[in-house]
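Model: You mentioned two targets. I'll fold them one after the other.
Researcher: Yes, keep them separate.
Model: Target one:
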Amino acid sequence: MGRSGKRSSYRQIFKATTIFGGVQVFSVVINLLRAKVIALFLGPEGMGIFYLFQNPLTIISQITGLGIGSSGIRDVAKTDSAQDTHLLSITFDTIKKWTRLGGLAGTLLTFILAKHLSMWSFGSEEYAWAFVWLSGTVFFVTVSNGYDAMLKGTRRLKSIAKAGIISSSAGLIASIPLYYYLGVTGIVYGTIATVLALFAANWYYSSKIPSERVEQSAGEVFDRGKKMASLGIMMVLASIMETLAMYIVNMYIRSNGDTADVGLFQAAIQITNISVGLVYTAMAGDYYPRLSAVCGVRSKVNELVNQQAEIAAIITAPILIGMMLFSPFLIRILLSPEFLPVIRFVNWILFASLLRSLYWTIHWVMLAHGHTRMFFYMCLIPNALTVALYIPLYNYGGINALGAGYLAQNLITTLILYYALRRKYLLIIRRGYFNIFFTGLAAGTIVLLSLSLLNKYYGLASGIVILILLLWYSFRELNRRVGVVNFISKLRRHE
């Protein structure tokens, strides 16, 4: 690939990252604003109740949806690259029918298990009727995931952005009065409103993708969907493991601490998602389809993986370190002073997330090649570590001690994954990425130590100096790959 071709590829990655990342930041901020409303009206206990609802519903949706909403992205991307509208329409039809059936199964299962879900989450049947009301959301989430796969597979970046912004805003606007007037009961109706907004937005924008009306027999739909499900089931099992591991930790914290501790723990995770979500949502929406299209050519896979990893590292390090410096301010603004006890935990998670630029980039290689069994085993490692590390650490030092577990989990998982992919796919990460990564890691280490060892003002001042230097370095590296300065100059000449 020539220099102009490389720069074009870097620009495509950067464009997708800014579009998807902007939407993800917006969505996460909306979720945090929702969390702030819950924090103000219901406190940390209300936050805990919210997530004790979400975890089991997510697991059921993942099980009955068979991962079609995720694996379908790969099929749509491959079909779309062939520029065959009829075949693309058949793929769309298959995704729609499988997700509708899976959604119905999920709703029925949630309805039947309502009492048990209440017992498992809350230790009583008090919230059984809440799970009955929420059972319908499983259908709409599952079907909405299918529409999302259609949008991402065809790389409709602007439509994905609009759907995300509209659904997040509508869900928040509907939730605020419900939380205010109904208290804890409002969590149920707020969740329903949010899910319906997401479903409506994804349905509307996916319906604008050009397609034909096709007729398929039940056998044809089954055969085509079975291929997607074979990939999707492994993705589902991986997702279920992640949700289940977090659910186990949440239940343990509730049993050995209280529901307020669950709320503090989840609030810290949500704040971190602002940063990591910016880049990693772009990977699912643009990088994964592009990687699927070139997975048969090793040199192209290596090139694309390195380009994506470099852009991810350049963008995430300043964001993560900036959030470490201003985490007390973010907690006060986005949540409430009641959540300030988790500052140390938040800073450790943000620091550990510096490792995710490599992990999240390379783990898509297995899915692009359709090697689902290997993907499943690789996902087993971090989730087993979540339970094995978090529970004893919580017993030892409470919520803040979990930060060390998050760091250890990310370090071990990333090293094992890179070693495995290097052996199987001859994947080689270039020196250019490691130069960027270790620069960000060094800056993060200095900032973390400054905040921990120095007084409040000296720690903040030294951290700001490091952040300014890192921003200069990141801009220089980004300009080398994307040509930001030349792009700005062209815009000025056209003014």
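Model: Target two:
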Amino acid sequence: MKYSLPELRYPAESLAPVMSRETIDYHYGKHLQTYIDNLNRMIEGTEYEDMSLEETVCKADGGIFNNAAQTWNHIFFFDSLTADRKVMPAELEVILKDNFGSAENFKKEFSSACTGLFGSGWVWLAMNSEGKLGIYKESNAGNPMKSGLKPIFTVDVWEHAYYIDYRNRRAAYVDAIWEIVDWDVILRRIRQAK
């Protein structure tokens, strides 16, 4: 299966000032494209050639896992964002309250995980087999699907995600990201995961 870069659901400049057009051009348009190109080259003639991207993430290791997971993670991350600033749906507020005490407490815990992850990686909101939501820190290309969890939301905390706009200020990037989260997408993923 040949993978290609999906089209964004929003114009590249529309996430500014949280995420600039330059960041989208480099992070989505060039950085993610490199993972996709590497993955396509690496899986040719292997057992992964006909697998879905999700299957490859769950079964592969080494370079194939790194490129497959980074491809999956980035697409999932960018699909979680919106140019239309949205209010969190009441149903999602209740779900987050049940799991984290409140929606604000969820944001606080998630942000803390993002700023506390040493080095490069991803922070995830994911659901376990009992339907409980948790926050998980993964280094490098880590993805909670490898542990049988269902991803709901993620934030990329590799330096390439924020250095153009925020330089070394990861906390400022994480604080700003909440302004462009598509809460409707998050709620839909929770419903689908149950």
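Researcher: Noted. Anything on target two?
Model: The CA atoms of residues 118 and 139 lie 8 Å apart.
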